[in-house]
Amino acid sequence: MSTESVSEAAAAANPNNDFEVTQPPDDTVSALEFSPATVQQTYLLSGGWDNTARCWEVGQNGQTEPKAMQSMSMPILDVCWSGDGTKVFMASCNQQVNCWDLASNQTMQVETHDAPVSTCHWIETPSYTCIMTCSWDKTFKLWDLRSSAPAMTVNLPERVYCADVGYPLVIFGTASRGFVFYNLEGTPSLSGSISSPSAHQHRCIAVFKDKVTKCPTGFGFGDCSGRLCIFLNIHKQRHQRENFSFKCHRHNIRGVRTTQNIYAVNDIKVHPVHGTIASVGSDGTFAFWNKETRTRLMVSSILDQPITKCCFNSDGQIFAYSSGYDWSKGHEYYNPALKPKIFLRPCFEEMKPKVVSTTD
Predict the structure, then answer these.
(1) Chain segment 114-127, per-residue pLDDT in tens
(2) Rounded-to-integer distance, Cα 188 and Cα 156, Å
(3) What's the CA gap between 291 and 276, in Å, rounded?
(4) What is the pLDDT of residue 241?
(5) What is the model's pLDDT at position 267?
């Protein structure tokens, strides 16, 4: 390959000129999480289809240093940190959840389901601390790490594809386009369920919190049709004036004015300070949104691969996103020459809600 061709390939892989994480995974990233605010240094954690979880230290200048890696027998679908940042939990297609102690660099199996484990979340409440795991076996379980048996097992109507927690609320996005709401206060209890207003299966979900009280106020989700749906009031899921949706991650076909290519929304995250939203899609772009004004703050240049996952660090200064093939176009579009990558972007100013000027 000529020097010019190499340069063009590099530009296509990173058209936004963001910091590239060193030694990325060998296969597509399926989970991406920054360390919690309780950890003084910033670390980035990933899980992926190469059966590995990897951890990098992130420097002040955007440089990254690989720190550790652990493997499981099958792809890792989700990862999460313990509240103090000393442990990592890895949810896998092998129906297990392993705990990775970072100080000793040792792992142990702590949880199991009867089907692949799709999500895991660390839960801290005034009365208990646990790991919540969700699975394609149509259950979610709460685990006290001091016991080998789950503290609670709850049957759900369908397989769990995605979930998010904003204490005391947890929302499960299930197969057949369903959403199930549970209250985690005291003994977890069902607080409601709805069918998705979208005609297409959802892929990701995020809970919105009040900037002052930090209580959940609403949620949003992305689906396979390149659409974001927003519920601004968590208590009025069916109130149409509180809900809206908009098209994103779609591109007009050149020369065909009435036709678009439509791409899945692979992930959405809420900025921890501003409350604005980031979305990433199979079209290879990320975008920032203000849900209150229903406007787009910015959209990225197009990468040479889909963007599969994203996250913010604890103070909202850094936006991380991963690129890699997501098989949305089938095996014939897989290009082994295109390798998975993870990028870091300073985002605090870009995520700020824009002030709308008024004139007399």
Answers:
(1) 999 999 999 998 88
(2) 13
(3) 6
(4) 62
(5) 98
The answer to whether 149 and 171 have CB atoms below 8 angstroms apart is no
Question: pLDDT tens digits for 47-58?
Answer: 999 999 999 999
Cα-flanking dihedrals φ and ψ of residue 241, to 5°? -70, -20
Distances (CA, A) of 186 to 83, 120, 124, 129: 19, 20, 12, 11
**What single letter denotes the amino acid at residue 61?**
N
pLDDT in tens, 302-322: 999 999 999 999 999 999 999
CB 67, CB 58: distance < 8 Å: no
Which DSSP category does 156 fall into?
Answer: -
Residue-wise DSSP of 121-178:
EEEE-SS-EEEEEEETTSEEEEE-TT-SS-SEEEE-SS-EEEEEEETTEEEEEEGGGE
pTM, two decimal places: 0.94
Distance CA 178, CA 79 (A): 23
